[in-house]
Design goal:
By secondary structure, the protein is of the alpha/beta class. Helix content is 18%, strand content 38%. It has a four-stranded mixed β-sheet with strand order 1-2-4-3, covered by helices on one side. Helix 1 links the parallel strand 1 and strand 2. The protein is globular, with a radius of gyration of 11 Å.
Length: 66
């Protein structure tokens, strides 16, 4: 798949989620779309990924069919 993968990171604002996002970037994993998911408390926060700011969305409202 040359276009990359759609990746969802659950608990993206926690220590493990943040580490996973860093690893995806460091290893140049072929990500087409990065979905950052967390609780309602973290909704709207932004995390940097490859020079872009990605907004954290609510896990309980995410459609995993994406």
């Amino acid at each position: 798949m040359s276009d990359g993968f759609d990746v969802a990171v659950v608990c993206a604002t926690g220590a493990v989620g943040e580490a996973l996002v860093e690893i995806l970037e460091e290893r140049d994993f072929t990500v087409r779309t990065l979905h950052l998911l967390a609780s309602e408390r973290s909704e709207g926060k932004r995390i940097q990924f490859r020079g872009s700011s990605v907004m954290v969305r609510r896990l309980d409202q995410f459609d995993f069919a994406q």
